[in-house]
Amino acid sequence: MKPIARAHFAHLPTPIEELPRLSDLLNGPRILVKRDDQTGLAFGGNKTRKLEFLVAEAQEQGARTLISAGAIQSNHCRQTAAAAARFGLDCILVLTGDAPSQPSANFLLDQLFGAQIVTVSDRKDRDRILQETFDNAVTAGGKPYLVPYGGSSPTGALGYAFAMQELMEQKVHPDWIIFGTSSGGTHAGLVLGQRIFGYKGKVLGISIDENEDWLKSHVSALASDASEKFGERINFTPEDVLATDAYCKAGYGVLTDAEREAVKLFAKYEGLLVDPVYTGRAAAGMIDLIRQGFFKKDEVVLFWHTGGQPALFAEKYEKALV
Asked: Running DSSP on this structure, what letter comes out for residue 150?
């Protein structure tokens, strides 16, 4: 295996816990949860694992500024801003959406971490504004490093390839791993880690906002590219990727009764918080699949909690959840 630069700051390994009351309520398989909401950086979340590799790459390149983009309440951007503060780097975030009248949740935290924020009203303009922001930082001598959307690059995907190794070392062997997938980095890392470290179960991504065909194509290509970081390239195909887009028809960040129920069930029966956008949607999908009898009752299902709880306190959701 090639040597891979990594900045070790995540709180790892994250624990695996039983969800017995939820399992009983749903009369389904045994449910476990992998607590990546406890990775430690700025309320934790899955992006912390990716940032261990992205920050290391930025440092190798002599970067002084991290630049990234996302939605106005982006979990990824919140953790990127925190990582920049942790390592003494500047941070510029290009956020799509209208800034809340009263800063809250992730948007508030971005500011506390000292990030410079550029807002973009229309998502179609985001990539152009992001490139302009990067070019301006180069001109100003900021030595920027572009952290990809969602941290989802071959480098970022390494975080979840090694997360799969961590899971195997915890000697927990679920039949299924269920999680929310969007920009594809977490998904690609798990698919790659499955192959490299010998996980025998199935990895099913529940789409937050992308269609199934795009996810399978994108994730397989990203996993293939990430494999070169370990040594010889492994060529993954869309058939190697399991994903469903059955639960994202409402659109990104649109709270439906399914997400609302999932947030409430996890809270009421397990004292566990999931967020309305990502883990809430993934949890809603898992709950529906259990009710459909998709999983066998003697199987073990691991829900990989990717964090995002600050979104519970965003202005948009404060009155919609209860």
From this structure: G
How far apart are alpha carbons 243 and 261 in whole angstroms?
22
Residue carrying structure tokens 């891979």: 4
**Structure tokens belonging to residue 92:** 């510029």
Q: CB under 8 Å to 257, separation ≥6 — which residues?
A: none
Q: Is 74 a catalytic residue?
A: yes
Determine which one of 68, 74, 104, 207 is catalytic. Answer: 74
Is residue 301 one of the residues assigned to a domain?
A: yes
- In a domain, residue 147? The reply is yes
pTM of whole model > 0.90?
yes
- Count of the separate structural domains present in the chain: 2
Give all strands (DSSP E) within 113-241, no chain letters.
116-120, 144-146, 176-181, 202-207
The per-residue pLDDT for range 165-175, each reduced to its tens digit, is: 999 999 999 99
Structural domain includes residue 52:
no
Q: Domain with 182 in it: what CATH number? A: 3.40.50.1100
